[in-house]
């Protein structure tokens, strides 16, 4: 396989991102640049991402972000071999901005276009950062997704469970909101929890006794809300104790589910080293990461948590997924459609 230079474009949520990644003959990847512009400020006043505002900000910024990514990589646009862009799942307005830009660049430069599934970008990142071999188990925990995916190969995925209501990051964001913390919610809850007593409140752990790999966080969120209402007005200590109790409950849920998922992995691949790869913004949470480190140590599994800028949405993961697909001869037509929903 020849060396390839890929431009990756990510616009499916509230990050406008572009990156240049190089894949060498042996399949080893190098990030040449990774530029991300977060829209946190645009959406702050609305308590959540406003799709129309997001799409407009992508339109305004994407060209600059791409130019910067090319510049920081020390190459010219003509040097790229292919352009990869997220084609879904995500907010359709934003996805269209990125995908249409990628199509225009591919057409005008005469380069290949590769439409990338955003979730595949998350799933393959650990191969870029750590060269992880197939098969492995991925736990994706972000603002939009909470799921286990068995990654057998490029394009060969099996969903082993997901959330039946809120995503984990979403649960953090909602709990933050009702405690008047953040945005961003997740880091604010983690920060508040540092001062809190995690044993003060006992919150429910839905589904935990069932032998299924699904998550459910809405009952937990409701319990947190009822507790907050019962105590109102909340002191700083109340807020810290609720945050800590919530976070510990979540960590226990994630740890238990991950243990079950690793069990299933070892049954599916007897004798194969177990590997757990974590992706998504919630991977930044130290309490949850510690629970997973503990679990993997006990279970004898390898735990891979890529650097946090590559766990959250970014262009490098899209470029890398494009590179892996390109190496297998994949290419998308210029009329490939954006897909707001697109399961792996
Ligand atoms: O992957 P990501 O950047 O965006 C997508 O949703 O795709 O994930 C963002 C989510 C948010 O819900 C945020 O609250 C959560 O990740 N998050 C955290 C932490 N940092 C970010 N949740 C808990 N603890 C954190 N330290
Ligand atoms: Zn994502």
TrEMBL record:
Function as written in the Swiss-Prot or TrEMBL entry: Required for the formation of a threonylcarbamoyl group on adenosine at position 37 (t(6)A37) in tRNAs that read codons beginning with adenine. Is involved in the transfer of the threonylcarbamoyl moiety of threonylcarbamoyl-AMP (TC-AMP) to the N6 group of A37, together with TsaE and TsaB. TsaD likely plays a direct catalytic role in this reaction.
Q: Which GO terms describe its cellular component?
A: cytoplasm
Protein location:
Cytoplasm
For activity, the cofactor(s) needed are: Fe(2+)
Task: Detail which positions bind Fe cation.
Answer: 118, 122, 313
Which reaction is catalysed here?
Answer: L-threonylcarbamoyladenylate + adenosine(37) in tRNA = N(6)-L-threonylcarbamoyladenosine(37) in tRNA + AMP + H(+)
Q: Which organism is it from?
A: Devosia lucknowensis
Tell me which positions the record assigns to the signal sequence: none
Q: Name one Pfam family in it.
A: TsaD
Q: TM segments?
A: none
All copies of domain Gcp-like, residue ranges: 31-320
CDD domains hit by this protein: ASKHA_NBD_TsaD_bac
Q: Which family does it belong to?
A: Belongs to the KAE1 / TsaD family.
Free-text comment on the cofactor: Binds 1 Fe(2+) ion per subunit.
Name the Enzyme Commission number(s) assigned to this protein.
2.3.1.234
GO biological process per UniProt: tRNA threonylcarbamoyladenosine modification
The entry's protein name is: tRNA N6-adenosine threonylcarbamoyltransferase
- So which domain of life are we looking at? Bacteria
The UniProt record lists the keyword Metal-binding: yes
**Positions with a binding annotation for substrate:** 140-144, 173, 186, 190, 285
Keyword match Transmembrane helix: no
SUPFAM superfamilies according to UniProt: Actin-like ATPase domain (SSF53067)
Q: Tell me one GO molecular function of this protein.
A: tRNA N(6)-L-threonylcarbamoyladenine synthase activity
- Identify the NCBIfam families for this entry: gcp_kae1 (TIGR00329), T6A_TsaD_YgjD (TIGR03723)
For this protein, the record's InterPro entries field holds:
ATPase_NBD, Gcp-like_dom, KAE1/TsaD, TsaD
């Amino acid at each position: 396989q020849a060396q390839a230079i890929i431009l990756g474009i990510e616009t499916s949520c509230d990050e406008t991102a572009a990156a240049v990644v190089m894949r060498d003959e042996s399949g080893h990847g190098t990030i040449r640049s990774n530029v991300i512009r977060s829209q946190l400020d645009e959406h702050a006043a609305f308590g959540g991402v406003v799709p129309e505002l997001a799409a407009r900000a992508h339109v305004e910024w994407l060209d600059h972000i791409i130019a910067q990514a090319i510049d920081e990589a020390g190459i010219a646009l003509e040097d790229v071999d292919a352009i990869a862009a997220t084609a879904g799942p995500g907010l359709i307005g934003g996805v269209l901005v990125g995908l249409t830009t990628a199509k225009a660049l591919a057409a005008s430069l005469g380069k290949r276009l590769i439409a990338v599934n955003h979730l595949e970008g998350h799933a393959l990142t650990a191969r870029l950062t750590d060269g992880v071999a197939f098969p492995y188990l991925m736990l994706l925990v972000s603002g939009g997704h909470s799921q286990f995916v068995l990654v057998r190969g490029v394009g060969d995925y099996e969903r082993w469970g997901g959330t039946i209501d809120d995503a984990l990051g979403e649960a953090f964001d909602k709990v933050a909101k009702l405690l008047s913390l953040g945005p961003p919610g997740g880091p604010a809850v983690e920060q508040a929890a540092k001062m809190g007593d995690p044993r003060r409140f006992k919150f429910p752990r839905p589904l935990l006794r069932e032998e299924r790999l699904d998550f459910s966080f809405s009952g937990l969120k409701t319990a947190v809300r009822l507790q907050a209402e019962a105590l109102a007005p909340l002191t700083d200590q109340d807020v810290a104790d609720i945050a800590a109790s919530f976070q510990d409950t979540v960590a226990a849920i994630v740890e238990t589910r991950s243990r079950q998922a690793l069990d299933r992995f070892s049954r599916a691949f007897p004798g194969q080293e177990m590997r757990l790869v974590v992706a998504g913004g919630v991977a930044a949470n130290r309490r949850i990461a510690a629970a997973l480190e503990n679990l993997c140590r006990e279970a004898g599994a390898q735990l891979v948590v890529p650097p946090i800028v590559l766990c959250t949405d970014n262009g490098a993961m899209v470029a890398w997924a494009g590179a892996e697909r390109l190496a297998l001869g994949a290419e998308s037509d210029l009329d490939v459609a954006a897909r707001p929903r697109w399961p792996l």
